[in-house]
Amino acid sequence: MRTAQDIMTTAVITIGPEADITEAVKLLLEKGVNGLPVIDEAGLLVGILCQSDLVRMQKSLPIPSLFTLLDGFVPLSSSALLEAEVKRIAASKVADAMSTKVVTIAPDMTIDEIAALMVDKKFHTLPVTDKGLLVGVVGMKDVIQTLIPRS
Fold first, then answer.
1. Is residue 61's pLDDT more than 50?
2. Which residues have CB under 8 Å from 39's CB, separation 6+?
3. Rounded Cα–Cα distance for residues 8 and 129 (Å)
4. Which of 3, 21, 114, 132 has the fewest CB within 10 Å, making it most exposed?
5. Regarding beta strands 66-69 and 72-75, do their DSSP bridges make them parallel or antiparallel, or are they unpaired?
């Protein structure tokens, strides 16, 4: 059975957490990729910046609903959530806009498991890590190419 390490792309385009958002946008557009793994100086995967993260920056800030209780205002949404949303919308650095809860796969994960994860979670690309280090990525294209018989 073929695994992630058999089909992954190892020449991965990455970016650092302190890079400017404009640099990330240019990379995404120039390279035609949907997302950029964010790695620190040690090569550890610390997040991922997707096109959807950048689109989210363009939305307007939702004003939280309030109601009064005993002459006081009570927000209907969490102030921590509002603060996080403000930070993401106003991001100037990759670290402020990236997703830190990244689903990764191991080099020995089978293609069947990868395909199921992509379908179930609607992922287009999955970072491949070994002990936290980014070693490659597997995209839908990589999985689809396995349908072509090897010559």
1. no
2. 14, 15, 16, 45, 46, 134
3. 11
4. 132
5. antiparallel
Rounded to 5°, angle at Cα 139 from 116 and 22 = 130
Contact, 47 vs 38, CB < 8 A? yes
For residue 140, CA distances in Å to 9, 18, 69, 123 come to 11, 29, 52, 8
Q: Which residue has the tokens 């970072």?
A: 127
In the chain, the amino acid numbered 68 is: T
Alpha helix stretches (DSSP H) within the chain: 4-7, 21-31, 51-56, 79-89, 94-97, 111-121, 140-145
Q: What is the CA radius of gyration of the chain?
A: 19
pLDDT tens for 70-97 read 555 545 555 555 555 555 555 689 998 8
Look up tokens 């690309």; give the residue.
125
Task: Please name the residue that has the structure tokens 């991965």.
Answer: 12
**107 in Cβ contact with 8 (< 8 Å):** yes
pTM for this prediction? 0.74
Assess contact for 138 and 4: CB atoms under 8 A: yes
Residue with tokens 């921590």: 80
Dihedrals phi, psi of 55, to nearest 5 degrees: -65, -40
